[in-house]
Design a protein that fits this description.
By secondary structure, the chain is of the alpha/beta class. It has 10 helices and 18 strands. The protein is elongated and about 60 Å long.
Length: 355
């Protein structure tokens, strides 16, 4: 069963594509409803979908025999139709547009839609730089849709098409300073914080012990900044988890380049995929917002489920916006909660001794 969506882009794209004849389709990103809907509407076609969120990949299940799941960034060739539901990340959108251009056969069609409030207009403008004037552009239901044709004539390539991390197949490198050590990490379009260490994560890094041991889990790892820092400080084993498959790719690429064998990233939703593993330290900079609204869903799950994954004497280290009063939520589950360090904007809290 595929959940309903409130995304105007999904409805616009399903309406626009159901009567379009194509033997091969490619869908970078998007919700399971979009991928399964297109596979259902075009039962005789081959549909290749590259979900970014592991939860959407799980939701799709094996609903359609003609729907093939691929890893994000897998190159396509001679595809007849590409369908993109826009997201607010402009760099990721540019990467997907470049992938669409490279994958489409001459005469192939690109269907692009998104919410007005999430910046679809400039994304359509980016697409026009690669494909020319859209064949169709329409708007309704708080969204906008455009359709383009892949032509064979050469076009001037915008400068952003060669940016590292945006150009398909490339990584953007950045340095992570952790005490006296500096290591080089990589990221790519679509990963939280880009090639920077955000202020909340930086505060949490400064709160890590100077010498570490035992097993560490980084929940919501992004590019792997917290987990890799723990490894540089001496942790025996580091696991990193994120729902974002692009983040998992980036973290594992950094680990591969560093040549470490006791550090890995895997896709999962909070503790899904952790199995029976237990850790001496679980560290996280969890999301507390969905869009502009405050949302404790992920943080509450993290707090509630942490005791089942801690070793005796283990602890949870978490960073949160100062105004959220996260300590009270921790005290419901843990007997010991302390503020390790704080700024006007963020607090880092350590929780131990589950009740």
């Amino acid at each position: 069963m595929i959940a309903e969506t409130s995304s105007p882009a999904i409805h616009l794209l399903l309406d626009a594509t159901w009567a379009h004849a194509a033997a091969t389709w490619s869908i970078p990103g998007g919700e399971s409803m979009l991928a399964v809907g297109i596979a259902t509407d075009h039962a005789d076609a081959s549909i290749r979908w590259q979900p970014v969120d592991v939860r959407e990949r799980i939701a799709a299940g094996i609903a359609s025999a003609n729907l093939q799941l691929e890893e994000p960034g897998t190159p396509g060739l001679d595809v007849e139709a590409v369908v993109i539901a826009a997201v607010p990340d402009r760099s990721l959108m540019r990467r997907w547009l470049l992938m669409a251009r490279d994958a489409l056969a001459p005469g192939g069609r690109l269907f692009l839609a998104g919410a007005n409030a999430e910046g679809i207009r400039p994304v359509i403008g980016d697409a026009a730089k690669l494909f020319g004037t859209p064949d169709r552009e329409d708007y309704r239901a708080r969204g906008r849709i455009a359709a383009f044709t892949r032509h064979t004539d050469a076009r001037h390539e915008p400068a952003w098409a060669r940016e590292c991390g945006v150009e398909p197949g490339t990584w953007q490198a950045f340095d992570l300073e952790n005490g006296a050590a500096t290591v080089s990490l990589v990221t790519q379009a679509g990963v939280f914080a880009g090639a920077q260490v955000d202020a909340g994560t930086r505060l949490l890094l400064d709160a890590l012990p100077g010498q570490m041991a035992g097993n560490v889990l980084d929940v919501g790892c992004g590019a792997g900044v917290i987990g890799i820092s723990a490894a540089t400080l001496g942790a025996d084993r580091v696991d990193m988890v994120d729902v974002n498959l692009l983040a998992v790719q980036a973290a594992n690429e950094s680990v591969r380049r560093l040549g470490w064998t006791a550090c890995r990233a895997y896709p999962g939703d909070v503790f899904s995929g952790a199995g029976g593993e237990r850790y001496d330290l679980i560290a996280s900079n969890p999301p507390f917002h969905r869009g502009k609204a405050i949302d404790f869903t992920v943080a509450d799950r993290l707090i509630a489920e942490t005791p089942a994954h801690l070793r005796p004497g283990g602890s949870l280290l978490i960073v949160a916006n100062a105004f959220l009063a996260c300590g009270k939520r921790l005290e419901r589950v843990f007997a010991q909660v302390e503020t390790v360090t704080a700024t006007r904007q963020y607090h880092v809290l350590r929780a131990s001794e589950p009740r």
